[in-house]
Amino acid sequence: MLDKILPYLLAGISVGGQYALIAIGYTMVYGILRLINFAHGDIFTVAGFIMVYAAATMPLSVSIPLTIVLTVLLGVLVEKVAYRPLRTAPRMSVMISAIGMSYLLQNSMWYLTGGLAKQYPVLPWISDSVNVAGTTTSRVTIITPFLVIALVAVLVLLIKRTKIGMAMRAASRDFETAQLMGIKINNVISFTFVVGSFLAAVGSMLYFSNYATVTPTVGAMPGLKAFVAAVFGGIGSIPGAVIGGFIIGICESLIKGAGLTTFSDAFTFALLIVILAVKPTGLFGENLTEKV
Amino acid sequence: MLKIDNLKVSYGGIHALRGISMEVPDGKIVTLIGANGAGKSTTLRTITGLVKADSGSIQWNGSELLGRSIDHIISQGIALSPEGRRVFADLTVLENLKIGAYLRRNKAEIEKDLNWVYELFPRLKERSWQLAGTLSGGEQQMLAVGRALMSRPKLMMLDEPSLGLAPLVVQDIFKIIQEINKLGVTVLLIEQNANMALKIADLAYVLETGNITLSGTGAELLTNEKVKEAYLGKRKD
User: What is the pLDDT of residues B154-171, one digit of tens each?
Assistant: First the structure.
């Protein structure tokens, strides 16, 4: 029994970790801007393409950091051109701008890459096969959850213990008063996009190592599922996004294991509907403690 | 010294300030009184840069503040304790105070001021690890004042510090304001509680629908018949 479930469980934990890394980007941006950054899934895909092209001409020791840096720059740029000019606009306008940005990135990728699936470079060591309790899997599957937990731990420390983290927490509640403290709100928002895009870049390396090819729309589905994970965990909450990511990844994989592959996506989105209907704030949704 | 000259501010065609001029001399307590909607908060918010002015000037020790970024203005030694307290509810009391010193670098000095604020408000020290959202209204007001002090301001602006507080707490807050002023901090105070504000003010202005209609020392305005009638709730016999 266990040896039948184990491979699916491992795969689920792994893909769940990847969802978690993307979900943190959604949840952090939402936390500070109250905006669903629809372009986030596409930034994840662009990171995949950057890696494809970078690794074709450069050694991995250069292409990996380069991919991360370029993805971070892209995330910050998206915020600068598509969201910053709309800072005082109604939220709906910003959301439409986010959808527009998503399509712009997708179509730019079609245009620039020719739309054909590109082979993702094989990352040595993490792509090696390993044997876990009688199951053969790639090392990336095993590493992902640990890497995710380590990154989240660093992120939580950053937010709880550092000055910029304190500024982020303050700004996420009250822009105006945060500014009265001398906090440069735009810097804090840019920093949020730096963190989100960095994690999306790392997530894309782990994800595409398992899936081998990159196409312009391949990021849409994991992006959407990561968004569901963020909502499931309670959007705005980082632990929520992580736990939501793992739960969705594991459930999805176990459903596939049960032979119901066709329904695995349907399950994820049905879960979203149920959560929104039963507990709209998600598992760890923010409850405002404010005395007025 | 803060010198406001012919300041005009409007929100989408509605004139909030119609060209006010006033001065806040160093080391004094200056109060701005007026009814709801007279433009009191707008004045303070424009000084900090949160609201953009249409025209006029705001000079701080001779340099123009209009058009500068909020963080620049704050870094010049101006602090605002905003209306409704606006403490960061899910930060601890200690974090709220530390964030008040966000632009300062000298850790030893910050620590010194933290102890000073704790001396002024011993209640905050007792509750330093509590989330600010769990404090009572009076404690939150103390925190808002303490947070503003942590930037070590030269000019401390307070927007309705007595709002919604019990009379005894209001007295405490006013005592602290005077204490802060004695240490050399200039105070610009907005109040609906005109009686208390005028009693401690060296200089006072009356704001009515965007215009300054009266000014004088606190004592003068306390005995002014128009002020008495309109703001102190006393009838002429």
Answer: 999 999 999 888 899 899
Chain B segment 147-166 residues within 8 A of A by beta carbon are 147, 151
Residue A289 has pLDDT above 70, yes or no: no
Mutate to test the interface with A, among B42, B85, B88, B130 (most CBs of A within 10 A): B88
Does the pLDDT value for residue A249 go beyond 60? yes
CATH number for position A144: 1.10.3470.10
Q: A214: which strand partners?
A: A118
Query: Which tokens go with A264?
Result: 């695995």
Q: pTM of the predicted model, to two decimals?
A: 0.91
Question: Is there a domain that residue A244 lies in?
Answer: yes
Cα A183 to Cα A175, B74, B206: the distances in Å are: 9, 10, 32
Residue B6 main-chain phi, psi, to 5 deg: 45, 50
How many angstroms separate the CA atoms of A179 and A171, rounded?
8
ipTM: 0.92
Q: What total of structural domains would you count in chain B?
A: 1
What pLDDT does B236 receive?
56
Interface of A with B in 153-192 (CB under 8 A): 163, 166-167, 169-170, 173-174, 176-184
Contact map slice: B 69-88 vs A, CB within 8 A: 69-71, 74-75, 79-80, 82, 84, 86, 88
Distant-in-sequence, close-in-space partners of A181: CB < 8 Å, separation ≥ 6 = A167, A170, B74, B99, B100, B102, B103, B147, B151
Report pLDDT for A292.
38
Does B147 fall in a domain? yes
